[in-house]
Design goal:
mainly alpha; three-stranded antiparallel β-sheet
């Protein structure tokens, strides 16, 4: 079962990476593939078993030293880099969105902040905001797919005392 979770998490990570790179390149993934938001659901499908399994094997609140010891060094380094990138990506995403999200109401392109009008957008701005929105979310998807992938695929099995 761990192998299935690990491979599924890897697939989610790869798809998230493709979506993220596409958004960075200015490609509107939503127009061609509106179901991209289903990647949100995939996170929960994988993260819940990861949490329960990790509490069993690593303990309820493992220390950083225990986490570090449970994985190969390269996995830890890659995980830290992905997390740091996600934080930076989120900060840039928030700056670029001005705290709002694009919407269409009555045929007008709008920027809304929690349902409140911020300003009207041109069609080009609307498209750019949508692409940026996907970029912002996909940066987080990278973390939430990598963590269960790393756990199910690379966690060192405890050795039995001899």
């Amino acid at each position: 079962m761990n192998r299935i979770f690990g491979l599924t998490a890897l697939l989610g990570f790869i798809i998230s990476l493709v979506v993220h790179i596409s958004a960075l390149l200015g490609i509107d993934v939503l127009t061609g593939f509106p179901y991209v938001w289903l990647l949100h659901l995939g996170i929960f499908v994988l993260f819940v078993p990861f949490v329960f399994s990790s509490r069993k094997t690593l303990g309820a609140k493992p220390t950083l030293t225990e986490i570090r010891a449970a994985f190969p060094t390269w996995v830890v380094v890659l995980g830290v880099c992905i997390c740091a990138y996600a934080v930076l990506n989120f900060a840039l995403f928030m700056l670029a969105t001005a705290g709002g999200s694009p919407s269409i109401q009555d045929g007008k392109y709008l920027l809304l902040n929690h349902g409140k009008f911020v300003r009207e957008l041109t069609s080009g701005e609307y498209a750019a905001f949508r692409i940026n929105e996907v970029r912002g979310f996909s940066g987080h998807w990278l973390v939430f797919y990598f963590v269960p992938f790393a756990y199910f695929a690379f966690r060192k099995k405890p050795t039995l005392p001899q």
